[in-house]
Amino acid sequence: MKQSFYNIFIPDKNKVLCFNSFSNSYVIISPQAYMSLQNEGVESLAKSHSKTFEALVNSGFIIDDSIDQLDIIRNENKKERISPEIDYLMVYPTQNCNLKCWYCYETHVLNSKMSKEVLENTKNYITNLCQKSTNRILRLTFFGGEPFLYYKDITRWRN
């Protein structure tokens, strides 16, 4: 047995919050159990804190040595990309940006924005896609300079 690579531990005064981003689960354990796990390993935790060990195994914090979580993620990603049940759509409403992040290297085109007609056509396309594919998943992403400069236009699409 080994620890999941996706464990995040947040020590507090008299407890440790454990979050596993792979299984999307959390557990609260004692600082003693946490120290045992970190300093002495999984086997020691199993002996000294058996209930905590069991909870961590059941929640995906401790996994079998043979499990390659990165490989699982890659396979799921590959399946999802070629899945006939999932549609991906990226909408790029603008190249404008109001954040001026110091690390950004993008050349922003001022006053660039989808016209009302293009926005409406895009919304209609998405609506039609959803109506004729009721058993499919739509992964809709907004991208661009800063799409939320046009928050009202984008949020109208939820309905």
Automatic annotation (TrEMBL):
It holds the Pfam family Fer4_12. Signal peptide: none annotated. Transmembrane segments: none annotated. Keywords: 4Fe-4S, Iron, Iron-sulfur, Metal-binding, S-adenosyl-L-methionine. This is 4Fe-4S cluster-binding domain-containing protein. Its cofactor is [4Fe-4S] cluster. GO terms for molecular function: 4 iron, 4 sulfur cluster binding; catalytic activity; metal ion binding. SUPFAM superfamilies: Radical SAM enzymes. It comes from the Bacteria.
